[in-house]
């Protein structure tokens, strides 16, 4: 089975930066996508960004220009660089993995239902 382990969360002041990592293992092909999601208390899980194994990326409008996603294919680790953090970015951040179909693009893979495997989550808290 695919396993995902997130790290890098923490407490940061508004305007600061954090880099989240998602170490993945267990893939049997390179037709996969890894996404980052977040969930704040009392809110639905929200898609933040995703990247396919072949480098296709997408970033949600809510974080565009502040968050960047990248992948180290050798380590199968996906990074989410978060800059200019705001208090409203406070949430538990999850990475997830699922099958990739290049026929779909745009915000399609920001939907949690497209993912089969989930990490345990890492807390990000941004103080004002």
* Approximate shape: globular
Number of strands: 11
Largest sheet at a glance?
7 strands, mixed
User: What is the mean predicted local confidence, pLDDT?
Assistant: 96
Helix content: under 10%
Provide the structure class.
mainly beta
Low-confidence segments, given as residue ranges, are none
What is the beta-strand fraction? over 45%
Q: Say what oligomer this is.
A: single chain
Q: What separation lies between the terminal Cα atoms? A: 40 Å
Order of helices and strands: EEEEEEEEEEE
* Number of contiguous helices: 0
What does this structure look like?
The protein has strands spanning 3-7, 10-13, 18-25, 32-39, 46-52, 57-59, 67-72, 77-82, 91-99, 117-118, 122-127. It is mostly beta strands and 128 residues long. The strands form 2 sheets. Strands 2, 4, 5, 6, 9, 10 and 11 form a 7-stranded mixed β-sheet that branches. A 4-stranded antiparallel β-sheet has the order 1-3-8-7, with no helix packed on it. A hairpin with a 4-residue loop joins strand 7 (67-72) and strand 8 (77-82).
